[in-house]
Amino acid sequence: MIREEVLLDFTSRFHADILDLEDKSNTRVYVTITPESIVRIGTYLFRNIGARFNIATATDLPPKIEILYHFIVEDINLLISLRVFLDREKPEIESLAKEIEAFNWIEREMSELLGITFTGHPDPRRLLLADNWPEGVCPLRQDYEEWDETVDRTRGI
Amino acid sequence: MSLKLKALLKSPWVFHLSTGSCNNCDIETLDCLTPRFDIERFGMLLVGSIKHADVLLVSGSCNRMSVERMKELFEQVPKPCLVVAIGTCAGSRGIFKDSYNCPVPLDKIIPVDVYIPGCPPKPEAIIAGAVKLIEKIGGTL
User: Fold this and answer.
1) Is B106's CB within 8 Å of A156's CB?
2) How far is it, in rounded angstroms, from Cα A89 to Cα A71?
3) What is the pLDDT of residue A107?
4) Is the pTM of this model over 0.90?
């Protein structure tokens, strides 16, 4: 399949879920979709189009939280970024890790650093933060405040 | 100078510990051991176990997870031992000063004898730091 065929097939199949499609360049497409459709679209890209899951990134952009799922279709050199906006007060989205194993660790990381809840995740434990880190404090949120009283912000001796 | 310290300076065996560095300081440290710079001619040898070491080389910005491991390692070094901070992160935390994951600078946790600044320091700088360390204690090469 060439690039136009992939995009036409993709947009015609999911036109109800696609909110916006930004054709950034020859190798890059940003697709804004509804959060409810992420499992359907993600598994379709992975299984049917044969895209490789590269990485997912999340950013805190008040009043929303943005997640980008980057899929690469290597045959046609196209990077499709699925963009999802979540409510910042109660960020919740269905987990893709139960369908595709590669999502497991990146979803755990996003959930502890930004406080996003991935419903149906097979193993929702902590991944990166220290053991004494308090529950519910998300260090990559814009309104993160220092919780530890023992920290030292000088340059040392 | 104690006899123990004098014996140590003849051939200081080093143990290399990364406390969350970006690997550049580690690469430059390993460069010192290769034939081009050959720090072994001063009797320095990289050892695999902390219990054989005289000098602890620390690189990285001391994040919350690795600080606990570093404290345990420091307890296990045979004393007297010397600590060398390699790179800007270990010396002053560099750009990670206000990071949520780097709570305390290295020299507030364990006593540091020599700082080698640089991001990363060149192998020449690391060798110069090692020579200064030995001269500071009172030994000669």
Assistant:
1) yes
2) 28
3) 92
4) no
